[in-house]
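re the bet — no i am not wrong, look at it urself. input seq straight from the record:
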Amino acid sequence: MDESPTMSTLPLTQSFTHQAMNTEFHLRIANRDLTIVAGMAKECFDHLDFLESRLSRYIDDSDVSRINQMKGGETLYVSECTHQCLLAAIDAHSRTSGLFDITLGRLIEHRKTSAGDAPPLLCGQITIHPDIPAVTCNATGRVVDLGGIGKGFALDQMKQILIEWGADGALLMAGASSLLAFGHESWPIELSSFKNSLTLQLSNEALSASGTDFQGHHIIHPRGDEAMPQDLIRRIWVTAPTATHAEIWSTALMLLEPANLTDFIGDDDTITRIYCDQEGNVVSIPLR
């Protein structure tokens, strides 16, 4: 069974889809004049295409690709949206004690393509300047791969566009595992495992899911495979005020023992709820 949430009965909406960032994005906008709603969706998807052109490491002239091609000592100016996403990643690195790391692209590629060979050693360093949209390569070796945080960042950006258009509310989705809701409506989302399911009402917050059943052990531990927990979480669902933070936490918390989740998060207010698959049951993990 997929770790992604499924949707129960939804409010009346007009729906739009668009392919980007190697996934399908969905917009469900609270029903109103079709022409206005179509204009909202078009601006959202135009901006989504722009974000992909800046954030994807698989597009040759994107900001991220150019960062990954830098030589030691070089500084590169990037778009403002790229800078904002990078700053969010730096903040996430601090919040998660280094578990969330966007510079593991070389290890990610090795995991996808190797046949059991030893992973490459991590080396290199980049600096993301806090006050200007620029990145400096201090030493080569790091490869930036934004992965899920790029999709979450895109959902947050599209939410702002819809708010500026005066949308009453919407459910935005990147694939089936990253969702963002806002407005007066509550969106029933079903979290399912082998033995049970749980329906939560998503309202003015984001939900991100991660798991190993379908993608395998795709999440890289920055301190190597030997640091991976023995009691590996099979599925996790996280809610947060923003889709960016939901993606960050659903990735980072996969690298912890289930018993350590509450202590690790502490009183951090960028995460609101956690649900885990424990022996085939969806259970809520209490936060402080």
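see?? The chain has two domains: 6-51+149-285, 57-147. told u. also The helical segments are 34-55, 63-68, 80-95, 105-113, 147-165, 243-252, 261-265. so pay up
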